[in-house]
Amino acid sequence: MRKYYSGITVFKLVGSLTVLLAHIKLPSAYLALTYRVAGLAQMMAVVVPCFYMVSGFLAYQGWTRAASPGTYIRRYLLWISAVYALFCGYYLATTTLPALIGNYQAHVALGGPVRLLFDVFFLQGPAYSLWFVPPLLAGIGTTYFFERRGWFRAVCLLALAGFGFAQLTYGPLRVLAERLGQPVPWCTGRHALLVAKLSANYLGIGFPAVVAGAWVARHETVFLGMRARWLALGAAGLLVAETWFLWWATGGHYSYTLVFSMAPISLLLFLGVLRLEAPGIRAYHTLINRFSMVVFFAHVLLIRANYLVLNCPALGLAPGQELACVVLTLLESVALTLLLTHYLARRSQRAAPAPALALANYEPATQPGLR
């Protein structure tokens, strides 16, 4: 009997809905609080690294138990890449190319068309949430490469080194260096912001979180046997200390992406996800998985379309407009989920199913798939 992780299903659903709501509007009280408490927004943004951990956890279980690990990982990476490329193509045709044609000289001053295309594909993504995908692909591919060659300890050390480098590039270590009057050399110059954001997305969040998820899959019994109270106390202690340091060093206005506290808080959340038992949800996990995937990939395009339908601005929505946009986006996501389910049901049983973004919750999964 294969093991089913009901907590992962719940987390994906709650996480995707949280991202959707955040991209329509965050509560004003929370925004005011994050402005006053240095680093709070970064510390609370634990859904993203936890998503990476879930992805690394399930991908590791998939390829280590697949009849052909190479085939499994190729399908995994190629399917996600294909979906991502479709969104990039749409964004290029509707946004990037018209902007480039309309004001070419301005874009040349910012780095030229190559830099613009690089940002779309590898840094910002074609939508707010899809910047998540390239670091995921890079993290999964790198972890697989090292693990298959028996170098798993090496990839863990590499992830830790990358995490430290990213903290020095776009995190509290950079604040400390600047406070001591020692600016970080690679954080100056024309491409400093590009280097900083690439370091944050790939080395500070994506790669180490994917490796952490793979490590948990490799040592699941040890991880689940940890005492959550000690991990919580450690996370809380680091959170308090880091909040005080950032307030002291920045005067309360912290503008970088990373904080150290994200790591233990994300691990604590992931521990709760794996321990969560919700047996009743198993009967609906297929629809929930697909709905979560649809919301994650499509919600930004749906929100933009709904702004036009509701004839309202993208910024400064009234409460009634926000509610209408949320309801419309959810209904459209449900409709797309049902259409996807109908399409998959009509596919030939001989066709190999495609992997999703950490959508399979079973161990072991010899073939990745949309369940």
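[next item in queue]
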Amino acid sequence: MRMFEVTACVPSPSRIRTQRELQNTFFTKLVSYENWFREQQRIQKMGGKIIKVKLATGRQGTNTGL
């Protein structure tokens, strides 16, 4: 099974010192070839940016860490 290792940056709102600020959340996860388009759309709808995509192998849905 073909798997992609996707690294993305997604802004996430958080409350710091009673004012709204955006913090960027970076994450890396494995995405199967069949689910790649759906994951890409999800990241872009959240206002995120895909930083790196690499061909990898592994189990579907396994988080590879930060």
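[queue empty]
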